[in-house]
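Progress note, project year one: complex with glycine.
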Amino acid sequence: MKVMVIGSGGREHALVWKLKQSRKVDKIFCAPGNAGIAQIARCVNIQVERTRDLAAFAQRNKIQLTVVGPEVPLARGIVDEFKKKKLKIFGPDKKGAQLESSKIFSKEFMRKYNIPTVSFRIFSSAGEAIGFCKSVEFPVVVKADGLAAGKGVIIVKDLKEATEAIENIMVKAVFGKAGNRILIESFIKGQELSIMALTDGKTIIPMLPSQDHKTAYDGDKGPNTGGMGAYCPTDIATPEILKKIQEYVLEPTLKGLIKEGITYKGVIYAGLMLTADGPKVLEYNCRFGDPETQVILPLLRSDLCELMLSISNQKLESFGKLQWHKDYAACVVMASKGYPGNYQRGVRINGLPKKEENGCVVFHSGTSKNGDQWLTAGGRVLGVTGRNRDLKSALKNAYNMVNKIKFDGAQYRRDIGFRILRNNEREQ
Ligand code: GLY
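Model obtained:
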């Protein structure tokens, strides 16, 4: 069958790579894709926001399954658009995507359905929000309600920083309408855990637990980024913790969606904080995580296309248990100099492997090609995923490959997995 993946990053490269292994798939398209993806799929020059054009393309080309990577087309209603044309698509409709596209919707949803989360207040006036901050204990987290390309969550440590963040979001409108309303949330410390769960609107099944590193520099320091690395599974997610997540987060989330009249088909990504009181949801995403997908899919043995079709047909329950390789995977993101600030594009990349080697697969996030020469074309450039029987060896494979790939100013973290490795050492 013909399938199409929508998006252009490392997550989409991993989705295309895994779908291509399916016995069901004959041909893969990716819109718009990137130069790395173009090695294994036909890239189509339609941007992710053009939901109608994407549906028309799928119809014209008889695409039998479309898989949506990023949140923006989901929030714009790409699934509703495809449904109108009776085209199969993997992802939630516009109502379901509100779990990510409106932080206020998702917090009110959690409150209504008793899903453990962090305490919060909602504001639609900058003056009231600043007034409230005069009486809080810092730090607190200021969050724009709508989508803000990962930049709408700001941890502030005093009233001055809070005022600046609130004014930027609500008065200067740096994120446009996404900042018409904000949330102010208590700040909690601890280990974060990513759980991506698959649901067909009737059954919900978690994938392996993973952790990502959001900040730019070693030691979890520096500015927040789209993600500098990830690993999977993570031993911090003990069977007891996973049971609690299923019971107190995933099942109530599905029940709540059903009560709201939302038939959610796709991935629900719960970003969780592990606290002494149990796991708490920091946020939901309505899509696969990036870079988490780059470590989860290499471990999935089940056929991804069959799995997605069973979700689309609301037959997830009869799909059976997900099958996993009993390995670990670790991804190191190589970024351009200056990322997440300004960076240069078009820098030559050398040393990219021609094929998968030494337990490593390289997913492209932002590359282009000039003849045979690979060039950088984004902030995050490559995700280098190593696989092995334990996390340390998986990381070793990934870093061996990272050391062979060269481009001027390449910036990457040298400590992916450090918290869990330190934990494991303490326990030994
Ligand atoms: N890794 C975080 C995200 O995908 O939003």
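The longest strand covers residues 221-232.
The two ends are 49 Å apart (CA to CA).
No further modelling is planned for this target in the current period.
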